[in-house]
Amino acid sequence: MKISDALLDDTELAARLRLAVTRLARRLRQQTAGEVSQSQVSALASVERLGPLTLGELAAVERVQPPSMTRIIAALEEAGLVERTVDERDRRIARVKTTVAGQRFLERSRSRKNAYLAARVRTMSVEDRAVLARAATLLEQLLEGEE
Asked: CA–CA separation, 45 vs 146, rounded Å?
């Protein structure tokens, strides 16, 4: 690390982090490009993580309007990645859950992204990899309580 890196003020550091994280996220998204949209992948991952959800609950989690979520889920349903089931207690409510195909899709997507990133990390020195490990911990701490 250069001395000048350590002397960045908070605003400059935030700008560099934002750009680096944004570019890395774009590269990782490209590992699943063409299959489904990023909004669809995000919604699918939320359904997998949180269990069967109503469209309203999912829209709130994803921070999108319900009509947008309806379109996202319709596309995922058409692709066979999610299915809607009627709530047993209130038949007016439908819940969305991942299908086996949806779970496999997420596993493949994560595997490709992890492989891409692991290949990039392998090109770095042991010291730089240790710094990345510490940075990953710090980034996780930055996000604690945000979700």
From this structure: 17
pLDDT at 7: 63
Structural domain tally of the chain? 1
Tokens 């400059």, residue located: 12
pLDDT of the residue at 30: 85
pTM: 0.79
Q: How far apart are CA 12 and CA 10, in angstroms?
A: 6
Q: Which amino acid is at 41?
A: V
Phi, psi of 93 (to 5 degrees): -100, 130
Residue 141 sits at the vertex; the CA angle it makes with 137 and 46, to the nearest 5 degrees, is: 100
| AA identity, residue 78 | E
Mean pLDDT, each 10-residue run in order, the chain (147 residues): 64 92 91 82 96 94 95 96 91 93 94 95 97 94 78
**CATH code for the domain in which residue 35 is found:** 1.10.10.10
In sequence order, which residues have a C-beta less than 8 Å from that of residue 72 and are 6 or more positions away? 37, 39, 40, 43, 62, 64
What's the residue count for the chain? 147
